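Deliverable D4.2, example record:
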Amino acid sequence: MEFNEPLFVYSLTTRPVDAKRFSILFKPEWLSQAEYIPILNEIFKFTKAHNEPPSIETLKTVFEDKDQSAYELRYKTTLENLKTLVDTDRSEIIYTLDKVRDYGIVRSFIELTNDQTILQHQAELDGKTIIKESTENMLKEPTV
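Output generated by the structure prediction step:
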């Protein structure tokens, strides 16, 4: 399943409810376009700290304040590209967020089913523990 990663990252800067929801549901390292991973991490950190996602301009300032040369080399172009998405149709954003939600659920499930503890419980036919731990792990907030 593919989705528009830049549009996903951009949409979280404009939709506080979705930024909060995806900070629980989606791990930044699941992105295939590596240049967006630190930006998504920063969006989640900022949202968690301030209960509101940062704008693209705020993200620029955050990355500049951290390291001016890294900003110029790594983040400036990517953030400028995100700014070009400002006129994206709202329905396209909603459609993209639906795809990302499904993708996040699948990735969580894949990680869970490959977890060594779960595999050990499978080998021991310990179904009750698998259900309990699966539910707990699926509801854990990813670390940012």
